[in-house]
TrEMBL record, chain A:
Keyword hit for ATP-binding: yes
Name of the protein in its database record: Oligopeptide/dipeptide ABC transporter ATP-binding protein
Domain ABC transporter: 2-238
Gene Ontology CC: one annotated term: plasma membrane
UniProt record, GO biological process: peptide transport
Main location: membrane
Pfam families: ABC_tran, oligo_HPY
Family: Belongs to the ABC transporter superfamily.
The UniProt record lists the keyword Transmembrane helix: no
Keyword field: ATP-binding, Cell inner membrane, Cell membrane, Membrane, Nucleotide-binding, Translocase, Transport
Subcellular localization, as worded in the UniProt entry: Cell membrane
TrEMBL record, chain B:
Transmembrane segment boundaries: 9-30, 99-122, 134-156, 176-200, 235-261, 281-307
Source lineage: Bacteria, Bacillati, Actinomycetota, Actinomycetes, Streptosporangiales
Name of this chain's protein: Peptide/nickel transport system permease protein
Domain spans labelled ABC transmembrane type-1: 95-300
Source organism per UniProt: Nonomuraea dietziae
Family as reported in the entry's similarity comment: Belongs to the binding-protein-dependent transport system permease family.
InterPro entries in the cross-refs: BPD_transp_1_N (IPR045621), MetI-like (IPR000515), MetI-like_sf (IPR035906)
């Protein structure tokens, strides 16, 4: 349904996302994980046609055979909010502070041709489904969790075929987080779920893509990747998120995400297994469970 | 909303009362007795005393104040020392002219600033946007009276297209009325417009970076559509603050511009009153100007609440 081929995102000649390819089948929930700066959000924004000024995407991406990349905004904006929707990370600032939330929900429908009265009625219904029964409230009268649920109602209003979630629960309390995730699982069609929280991915997604340095370094069925990671970065990421007995050192990935990644394998300057072979680019290989590493974990 | 309004009204009344005390005290402290000035240096003490009694300036200040402020509440400003005509009536005649001048200037400022500022913000990355910013910078550096003199020089002296001064009431001849006010409006409005352009630009730039504008685009709006539907109202909030300050500035600027263009407004009345030591008249005009500024602030406060639901 969604097919992304060789997506590359550049700003000022620097490649921020490089040759990313993946697909999402109808109804499938795919997780996109990695540290901050790995290119997850840029990947999502380029599918929405919402890249910031001065940042551009090449490659191809089609959703239900309609192109998302390389077409003028005039054409893509007809798809945004109708065929593909997005929920952002920061619920506190994502809603217009001077507009009632009911109006903000119905707007996305009238914008795509639903008659006003019908849109208003469906907005009430949608807000009820996400559990925010206050259409006349302004955003500041709602909690962060409620606002994020309003965002979800907006995103789902036109029954899109793909929902992109960019860290939708990161800014929420743990209890509220759970409600939000349950709602997404219950209501959403196919999902591309971006997060750095591995537990969240495990509870929502069936397949996972691991990004590092603007590349997909490993991908496959969630269970497979989480129990048997092959890429050294995935291995480190999983080790770092494991609960450890009190008194033992927390496992970490040494170093930090650099501002410029090395040539060849982007992880080689932080990797304990790096060798001269890593100076050349490893390709993402493997059917089903794929990884791009010269020295994979057995 | 009701309690917010009630609070604002209370603030307005309290500050008006305070303004009355300050204006009166200030005039009372000024050296020079109006009766002495009116009768000249050769007047006998008896004549001066008689005039004081007639005007009531021999009474204790508190009595005079209560008398004055009580009259104001009833719309009575007293009688001019110099012309013996009721001050309230004179102010009434002039107030309309000055308000026309100020409101016209503000309208021109808005007509210039909102499109120019928005354009400069949307195009902040290219030369045209930068040019507007630079032009507004020049405009800020020019005081209104200088702009007035320059406009007179170009349009009245060189091009002979518009009168260099004078005023024709609207009821007499609408076309001449408009011509007589056009240059004063421009000299007030263009300068304020230049200032306002910068505020509009920064307010629009600010909202363009807001997350909710990205949300609007994610709903399927284009860049400009999102800005129009979701940005402008939010950008208006800081702009209204500046607008209020500017209206006060315009009121003061009008006093000067009326002089340049020989327009019989409040400023003209005020300056004449000062020249003739007509203290009660000056006191009345100053009070009206102060109350006008306070009213503007009140309207700004109400506008905030209308624009921003978080304040209600």
């Amino acid at each position: 349904m969604l097919s992304v081929e060789a997506l590359t995102v550049r700003a000022d000649g620097v490649e921020l996302v490089r040759e990313v390819s993946f697909g999402i089948a109808p109804g499938e929930r795919v997780g996109l994980i990695g540290e901050s700066g790995s290119g997850k959000s840029l990947t999502a924004l380029s599918l929405m046609g919402l890249l910031p000024e001065g940042v551009s995407a090449t490659g191809s991406a089609t959703l239900q055979d309609q192109p998302l990349l390389g077409v003028p905004d005039k054409r893509v904006k007809g798809l945004r909010g109708r065929v593909v929707s997005m929920v952002f990370q920061e619920p506190m600032t994502a809603l217009n502070p001077t507009m009632r939330v009911g109006a903000q929900v119905s707007e996305v429908m009238t914008l795509h041709g639903v008659p006003r009265a019908e849109a208003r009625e469906r907005a009430l219904d949608l807000l009820g489904r996400v559990g925010v029964e206050a259409p006349r409230a302004y955003p500041h009268q709602l909690s962060g969790g409620q606002r994020q649920r309003v965002m979800l109602a907006i995103a789902l209003a036109n029954e899109p075929s793909l929902l992109i979630c960019d860290e939708p629960t990161t800014a929420l309390d743990v209890t509220v987080q759970k409600q939000m995730l349950e709602l997404i699982v219950e209501l959403a069609p196919a999902v591309l779920f971006i997060t750095h929280d591995l537990a969240v991915v495990a509870s929502v997604c069936s397949r996972v893509l691991v990004m590092y340095g603007g590349r997909v370094v490993e991908s496959g069925p969630l269970r497979e990747v989480f129990t048997n990671p092959r890429h050294r970065y995935t291995e480190g990421l999983l080790a770092a998120s494991k609960l450890t007995p009190r008194g033992t050192r927390l496992p970490i990935i040494p170093g930090a995400v650099p501002s410029r990644f090395p040539s060849g394998c982007p992880f080689r300057d932080r990797c304990a297994h790096a060798s001269p072979a890593c100076e050349s680019d490893p390709a993402l290989t493997g059917e089903g469970h794929a990884y791009a590493c010269w020295h994979p974990r057995d | 909303m009701i309690s917010y309004l009630a609070k604002r009204v209370a603030v307005l009344l309290a500050s008006t009362a305070t303004a009355g005390v300050v204006v009166f005290a200030f005039m009372a402290l000024l050296p020079g007795d109006p009766a002495e000035v009116a009768l000249g240096v050769n007047a006998t003490p008896e004549a001066i005393e008689a005039l004081r009694r007639q005007w009531g300036t021999d009474r204790p200040p508190l009595t005079q104040f209560l008398d004055w402020i009580g009259g104001l509440a009833a719309g009575d400003f007293g009688v001019s020392y110099v012309t013996s005509s009721p001050i309230g009536q004179q102010i009434g005649e002039r107030l309309g002219v000055t308000l026309t001048l100020v409101v016209g200037g503000m309208v021109i400022a808005l007509i210039v600033a909102v499109p120019a500022g928005t354009f400069a913000a949307v195009h902040h990355r290219n030369p045209l946007g930068a040019l507007i910013s630079a032009a507004s910078q020049v405009g800020i550096a020019v005081p209104a009276f200088l702009a007035g003199i320059l406009l007179v020089f170009v349009f009245a002296v060189q091009a002979q297209a518009l009168p260099s001064g004078g005023y024709v009431p609207l009821t007499e001849d609408p076309s001449l009325w408009f011509q007589s006010l056009l240059l004063p409006w421009l000299s007030l409005g263009l300068v304020q417009g230049a200032v306002l352009t910068r505020y509009v630009r920064s307010a629009v730039l600010e909202v363009m970076r807001e997350d909710y504008l990205r949300t609007a685009r994610a709903k399927g709006r284009g860049r400009m559509g999102a800005l129009w539907r979701h940005g402008l109202r939010n950008a208006a909030i800081p702009v209204v603050t500046v607008l209020g300050l500017q209206l006060a500035t315009l009121l003061i600027g009008a006093v000067v511009v009326e002089r340049v263009f020989v327009i019989p407004g409040l400023g003209d009345l005020l300056l004449n009153g000062v020249a003739q030591r007509d203290l009660l008249l000056v006191q009345g005009v100053v009070m009206v100007l102060v109350v006008a500024v306070l009213l503007v602030n009140f309207v700004v406060d109400v506008a905030y609440a209308v624009l921003d639901p978080r304040l209600r």
